Amino acid sequence: MKDPICGMNVNDSSKFRSSYNGREYFFCSIACKQSFDKNPGAYAKGK
Ligand SMILES: [Zn+2]
Question: How far away, in angstroms, is 2 Cα from ligand 1 center?
Answer without folding.
Answer: 9
